[in-house]
Specification:
This protein has about 240 residues and is mainly β. The protein is about 5% helix and about 50% strand. The chain is built from two helices and 18 strands. The two termini are about 15 Å apart.
Length: about 240
């Protein structure tokens, strides 16, 4: 049986870097012997209302000559929507403010749950007094959020996917009497491209690169997984296969 590294070529499409309301393009790679490519975007902090988009470009050489988009090869992350980690800041919150969390686990959307700030914490009523109270409510086995685990530091609650790669969440703050500030801290997206039929090889556009465009002040990185027509060799600093 072949190991994963003998079947899929993996590489860095865009090195991890800070970007602030701009775009950045990774290195162009030759697809001459590539069947399919999957570009995986990892994004960090994103304030509410911001977005981070992953677009795949094609060009005629590694310098990006005559670069143009690969049609439909685009995926956009919207802050606080289907993310793997988010924070809820309650320093300015007041009673009757709400936090609504909708999780999706293994592709199945769960019922949206709304937690309301109140004078005391009561998990069964989904009411919380403070950050610690919201943690109690979210983590409750009966009335909490499936696929999401909460923790608190001061007046800020961090919400994380309980099992990475299997759950995402959408978080909305309801500002009634005060202010609940929700922000994304981690989110992922991917774009998969089948080279034949999608890349303009007829006109020598065989070099592909990922382009990330964001309206956030964040950190991004893109990894590339490639299905080759030959057994790939990995170029890494260290490796172990057991």
């Amino acid at each position: 049986m072949k190991r994963i590294h003998e079947q899929v070529k993996f590489d860095v499409g865009l090195v991890s870097q800070a970007v602030n309301n701009t775009n950045v393009t990774g290195e162009y790679g030759d697809t001459a012997r590539v069947k399919k490519l999957c570009y995986v975007l990892n994004g960090a902090a994103m304030a509410a209302s911001t977005t981070t988009a992953l677009q795949i470009l094609q060009a005629t050489d590694t310098a990006g000559t005559s670069a143009k988009n690969v049609t439909s090869a685009l995926a956009t992350i919207t802050a606080n929507t289907n993310v793997t980690e988010a924070t809820v800041a309650l320093a300015a919150a007041a009673n009757t403010d709400t936090v609504t969390i909708t999780s999706t686990v293994d592709g199945v959307a769960q019922t949206a749950l709304t937690f309301t700030m109140a004078a005391a914490t009561a998990a069964a009523s989904r009411e919380f007094q403070n950050a610690a109270g919201l943690v109690t409510c979210v983590n409750d086995a009966t009335y909490g959020v499936t696929g999401v685990t909460a923790s608190a530091s001061g007046t800020t609650v961090t919400l994380k996917s309980t099992t990475r790669g299997r759950a995402v969440m959408t978080v909305v703050g309801g500002n009634v009497a005060g202010t609940v500030t929700v922000a994304t801290t981690k989110a992922q997206a991917y774009v998969e491209v089948e080279v034949a039929g999608n890349v303009d090889r007829t006109n020598s556009f065989r070099y592909l690169a990922p382009k990330v465009t964001t309206t956030a002040n964040t950190v991004v990185a893109v990894e590339v997984l490639a299905e080759m027509d030959w057994m790939p060799r990995q170029a890494v600093g260290a490796s172990t296969a057991i």
